Amino acid sequence: MADSAPVTARTRSDVARLVDHTLLKPEATAADVAALVAEARELGVLAVCVSPNALPVDGTGLVVATVCGFPSGKHTSAVKAAEAAGAVRAGADEVDMVIDVGAALAGAYDAVRDDIAAVRAAVPSPGVLKVIVESAALPDEALVAVCRAAEAAGADFVKTSTGFHASGGASVHAVEVMHATVGGRLGIKASGGIRSTEAALALLDAGATRLGLSGSAAVLAGLPE
């Protein structure tokens, strides 16, 4: 397991500063997004993550993130790049893109790299690009290769999951593999099915540097001030 601060050293505010407070449900309304942003401010989290058509939002005091090619990743690179560019124009600071998982499973890692690079070009610095790899759907060899492809394409983060894939969400093992591959050079966002304080802390101990949470209040409530 990755070296990190012991669990007891992490306070509520420490962890909140690593949280993307997330609402990506298809049925989310404008009122739901407004409530998410208000709750994010109350919780003191770093960011909100919303669907592209929810932009722009009043992100004063928050990082604004969105998704691209979500949730299947089976869009063309041109479509992903256009979606990402539109999100940046609409005020997104960060874009979380989904890879073509089928290409990764087929070993087409150059295609995965090129897909990521197309979106990277649409999200120039200081914009942040996170790459959702659907880690639960990948064997370790493919997970390592995809993380390396993301790094080669200029991504800022690799991210475990959309939270919508049947194979599951974030796991300690996947985060450990990702950390061993690109830790210290790329950020690692754990997302998908993180519903308890204990699960969140285990993922941080494994090497995650950001957490994608929809139930942020419940996770943070279990931490000391």
TrEMBL record:
Main localization of the protein described in the UniProt heading: cytoplasm
Gene3D superfamilies assigned: Aldolase class I (3.20.20.70)
Keyword Cytoplasm: yes
EC primary class: lyase
Pfam families listed in its UniProt record: DeoC (PF01791)
Gene Ontology biological process terms in this record: 2-deoxyribose 1-phosphate catabolic process; carbohydrate catabolic process; deoxyribonucleotide catabolic process
Residue numbers annotated as active site: D96 (proton donor/acceptor), K159 (schiff-base intermediate with acetaldehyde), K189 (proton donor/acceptor)
Pathway participation: Carbohydrate degradation; 2-deoxy-D-ribose 1-phosphate degradation; D-glyceraldehyde 3-phosphate and acetaldehyde from 2-deoxy-alpha-D-ribose 1-phosphate: step 2/2
EC number: 4.1.2.4
UniProt protein name: Deoxyribose-phosphate aldolase
Organism placement in taxonomy: Bacteria, Bacillati, Actinomycetota, Actinomycetes, Kineosporiales
